[in-house]
Amino acid sequence: MIHEPIHVLGAGSIGVLWTASIRSRFPSYPIALLLRDHERNRNRVSAAAGAANDGGCGDSDNDGNTLRTGPVPIRHSHELEVAWNNRQAPGGKERLFLPVQFLGDGGDAPPQGPKPERIRTLLVATKAHQARKAVESVLDRLVVPPAEPQSGDPPPPEAAAPARIVLLCNGALSVRDELADLLPGAADGSGAVRLSLATTTHGAFFAGPNELVHAGVGTTFLEDPPGATETTERTVRAWNEAGLRCQALSPREMNAVLWNKLAANCVINPLTSIFRCTNGELLMEPSFPQLREEILAEVAFVAAKAGTTGANGSDETLRHGSDFPTEAKAKATGGSSSSEDDDNRGIPSVDEMRTFVTETILATQHNRSSMYQDIHGGNAQPTEIDHLNGYVVRKGRKTGIECPANEDLCARIAALTAGTDGSPCSETSGSGSAGG
What we know:
This protein is an alpha/beta fold. It has 14 helices and 16 strands. Strand 11, helix 5 and strand 12 form a beta-alpha-beta unit.
């Protein structure tokens, strides 16, 4: 089994959880965190003792098979010290030193030394609003198949295979659209770089500086795009060996999962921030049922409309003309749909979205949403509202659908972030919409 070299963008809880899980199971796995220069002092990053090339042989899987690394070793000159509650380690605790490369110094290549190594698999685990800029920062390092063979011999498979970007962040649908012009053809496999979407229900947070807590074991879903099944299978196997509980989904299945997750995020994140409550406490808010229905109705209509566009999502390729199609409307409102296109694109109905939102709230009832923590956590951070409710608003406008409930939530979160409005929706008067 070949280990695919992985570079991880994003040193937040999920990026570090992935790196720690993989390195704990496979100590010589060729994986490295990519950090920016200003993160040197914020994290406990130290010079690696004699680390130049990392990625030797000798690991074995559960069947005792010897594992070898891929053709591109991971160079690193720094390490990030992490203590975490590894559920698979003796005693449940473990301290690791994770390989680190800094983007500002060319991947740690010496000034007169070799060029920064190429990136074959890039795992993007940043905040949604940071994803595009982060990908742009390493775009010139992505492996791109040669346009023409350099000799009469065909290139080896690893040279011919394009680089792969795996999006493991909230707002993946929005980020995918953002990257469309940056990486033409990536989503459908026709470009020089492949793009795969991923999502996880694993929970993790930092309890202190470099002290990672794996708070909840969940499930990870990885999209298996056209022409990448072999690579996807290797990734799924390695991630499962590392305890990340991964399974591959078809693009249609992944689309359904991500629209459901977007719906849950559009409801839970802004409303918990406005009401200043845990996820479970939302269910006790008198106005919550109506607010939820208004938000989900808009998300479902936009999702159904998106399901009638061309593969590239462009407005010019609407298959049913400019009017909102009957089939899509039936799908959005939970009715039956005769449109095979909608089914093939994995568009969940509003009933399915509502069920998923309720299940998510009950499963995470004691949690405080990431947006709540960004706003009220004592260290104000930019939120992902533009890639959640904002994405629904923008997507709706492109196809002639107004989304006042989601648009109002964007305005309220912007006001909360600016510290100019702390009033919850339940204190407003009017029709009961999110805007009051």
